[in-house]
Amino acid sequence: MSIRKEILERVGAKEGDVIRIKKKGKTYEGILMPHHEFSDENIVTIKLKNGYNIGVEVNRDTEIEILEKGEEKERLKASVPFDPEKKTISILGTGGTIACYVDYRTGAVHPAYSADDLAFSAPEIFDVCNVRARIVYQLLSENMEVDHWRRLAREIAKEFNGNAVSGVVVPHGTDTMSYTAAALSFMLKNLTGPVVLVGAQRSSDRPSSDAYQNLLDAALVASKTDIGEVVVLMHGESSDSYTVIHRGTKVRKMHTSRRDAFKSINVPPLGIVSNGEIKLLQGYRKREEGEVLVDDKMEKDVSIMYFYPGMEPDDIPRKKGIVLMGTGLGHVSSRLIPRLKELIDDGTTIVMTSQCIYGRVNMNVYSTGRDLLKIGVIPCEDMLPEVAYVKLMWVLAHATDMEEIKRLMLTNLAGEISERSYFA
Amino acid sequence: MSIRKEILERVGAKEGDVIRIKKKGKTYEGILMPHHEFSDENIVTIKLKNGYNIGVEVNRDTEIEILEKGEEKERLKASVPFDPEKKTISILGTGGTIACYVDYRTGAVHPAYSADDLAFSAPEIFDVCNVRARIVYQLLSENMEVDHWRRLAREIAKEFNGNAVSGVVVPHGTDTMSYTAAALSFMLKNLTGPVVLVGAQRSSDRPSSDAYQNLLDAALVASKTDIGEVVVLMHGESSDSYTVIHRGTKVRKMHTSRRDAFKSINVPPLGIVSNGEIKLLQGYRKREEGEVLVDDKMEKDVSIMYFYPGMEPDDIPRKKGIVLMGTGLGHVSSRLIPRLKELIDDGTTIVMTSQCIYGRVNMNVYSTGRDLLKIGVIPCEDMLPEVAYVKLMWVLAHATDMEEIKRLMLTNLAGEISERSYFA
Fold first, then answer.
1. How far is B291 from chain A (nearest CA, A)?
2. Strands B277-280 and B271-274, how do they pair?
3. B326 vs B329: CA distance, rounded Å
4. What ipTM, to 2 d.p.?
């Protein structure tokens, strides 16, 4: 048994108790937190009154005393509430800041590992719905890949089909949340309820955390709406006044650190949640009857290429599919065109999006665009580059004929193409 | 002599005259426009009353008559005004929509070829300054490359040093205008006046063109301010009420088609121009005394790599320099790290920016970021990815020692790093 466990057992300290640690003349007071697998064995983590977690390394000379038993929290944990009058949602944990612990060895943040902890981090959720919570995987979202999307899609379908939940909440790292949202949007068909991806820009050990509000509002949307789409829910502005419901195929992380980093691009958001009230702002797909279907075949040999002045023909690799992020209305330099033609003639599907992010590609205006159309580059309307990437993976796994691939890329499958640019 | 020339000569029609064309029972009236080199030989181009240009193919049966001689315009052209009381600016044409003609064979837009035409397209410029105008090159800006930036830098210095102009206006295609602005910002030292890059999102044959207002306001900034920086001037909102002066290293095209597509990122703009009045909003570098210096050495073996889930280690090429566009605060998937380490150990400089576009990278928060720092990836603060790309080319041509490269990348050379994020 480690020294940490030994000392805590001796005084009978349990997670949730308020304790005092005395070490080398210094005193620390706070709530005893769960031990984190990434922490060194003899680190005791306590949450200070100011909301921050600290780690204290203990040894045989360290004194610990209990100031207050954490009965309230213990009782809550012991009795996960279930109210047959309320709808049930599933929370499927995938990792990310919304469920993060600080690693006191390095000072960096690592993902947490219990979905129950997640639900209990915002116990007000139980006022609006019952919760089934489990962990699908534990990942910093920059490490998520195609097979993680596929597994998540199947786990979500299982919750709807096997457990008849009204909606599924997916806490997710924000880095690639919009990629996952797009992937689920193409993979999940006939959704019988909302799939709400939710993240946090600031971890819950920080006073400015957005984790609590986002999770609570995500549970509201999952239990109280008739949406039958994949959506992303995040803060709407830098204070806590409202959260925004974004369509999964039209949302993008547009700031490295702000809590309102996620923006609907080229369309208004689907709705907002303010003070527990959900306002739906525009047309959305309604929940369907029957079974949720999963169609998760994906062609992985696809890449995103960001065009820049000076890009060489050899910089463009041979792939099954390439998403170009061109300039302006959808251009690359003319001297790349022979290379692109060679690849297309050999069977590569090349589609065009814009590095402007906002707006719609239009390759009929300038000669470069027309030349690119002529060799078979497919213009992706107002699709986000990341969404075009995910869609191209899906389309290439469902069609081999070039005309059929083009038809599918230009068909609005999951709200990824808007009829007109709202900011044209 | 072509049929077109023959018919026009016979009736004595000159560019600028209002003419009527009768062909197969149809009648067209408008101002006779210059013949464009890209048009078919027998296409007569006229500007209709509604502002649009059309092309009419003429043959021996076509009747043309002159309705009104374009005397006013002719007289203006004959006498380029020069007022010794006024300051002189240079206009250096490089191509782009701001100087575009429609190619009536294809319907696409091609760059124009006379800087005088440019100046005369907004003759009100002569009310505020004298104009020296010449063409440096004629390019759709997606075709601009490193050597074009270098040539332009030298031509700009020549105007300041040889002709003592108060400022230089560079009409430029909007697609890569921010890349060029960044390149000039690093190449030009000790600027004795403003360098104003200006573009148009709608060509001047369209009633909604922003070419006129942007060019006029650019001339104002070039002649009336004491700015000693490279700036970009474009529309501030979708009507014509004001234009915005952006710092050349902090601006990005953020919409494919809107006239206010250009945005200052992470900082407020330097100023605005409204009804002929210039308001400077924040600190800027003042014009220097003496000679403008050009330091245009660039390492071309640099690329931008856009990270996406599923990116393979082999997708990252061997280059002298690589700008990563990572997720969030500056991440890529952990399984790419060995490949990045291998490249860095072999001498590649790898720097990190964010695909969020807005905000600042911070690689100390999460374990992935710290791992990337540990292998030597350089975090580019709040630099735009495109600016980091141009800067890395410049830095690699001026330093070989890894510590010196890092020091230069993290030194604010041309306003590319802001002290803090204004939208943190």
1. 29
2. antiparallel
3. 8
4. 0.84
Question: What pTM was computed for the model?
Answer: 0.83
* B225 noted as active-site residue: no
Q: Using an 8 Å Cβ cutoff, are A389 and A323 in contact?
A: yes
CB atoms inside a 10 Å sphere around CB B238 = 16
| A178, A276, B183, B313 from B402: Cα distances, Å | 36, 54, 22, 23
Asked if B146 reaches chain A (Cβ–Cβ under 8 Å), the answer is yes
Upper half-sphere CA count for residue A110 (Cβ side, 13 Å): 15
Reduced to 3 states (helix: H, G, I; strand: E, B; else coil), residue B37 is coil
Contacts of A389 in chain B (CB under 8 A): 308
In chain B, what are the domains?
A: 3-72 (2.30.30.520), 80-294 (3.40.50.1170), 302-409 (3.40.50.40)
- Backbone dihedral angles phi then psi of residue A232, each to the nearest 5 degrees: -115, 130
What's the rounded Cα separation, in Å, for the pair B135 and B113?
7
Interface test with A, best of B172, B257, B335 (most A CBs within 10 A): B257
CB A364 within 8 A of CB A160: no
CA of A108 vs chain B CAs: smallest distance (Å): 5
Show pLDDT as tens, one digit a residue, over chain B (424 residues): 788 988 998 888 887 788 999 988 899 998 887 776 556 788 888 877 776 677 888 988 899 999 988 765 444 454 567 888 999 999 998 877 676 554 444 444 544 445 556 566 677 888 899 988 888 888 889 999 999 999 999 999 999 999 989 999 999 999 999 999 999 999 999 999 999 999 988 876 666 778 888 999 999 999 999 999 999 999 998 777 899 999 999 999 999 999 999 999 999 999 999 999 999 998 899 999 999 999 999 999 999 999 999 999 999 999 999 999 999 999 999 999 999 999 999 999 999 999 999 999 999 988 899 999 999 999 999 999 999 999 999 999 999 999 999 999 999 999 999 986 444 3
Cβ separation of B254 and A310 shorter than 8 Å? no
The conformation of residue B170, written as its DSSP 8-state character, comes to E
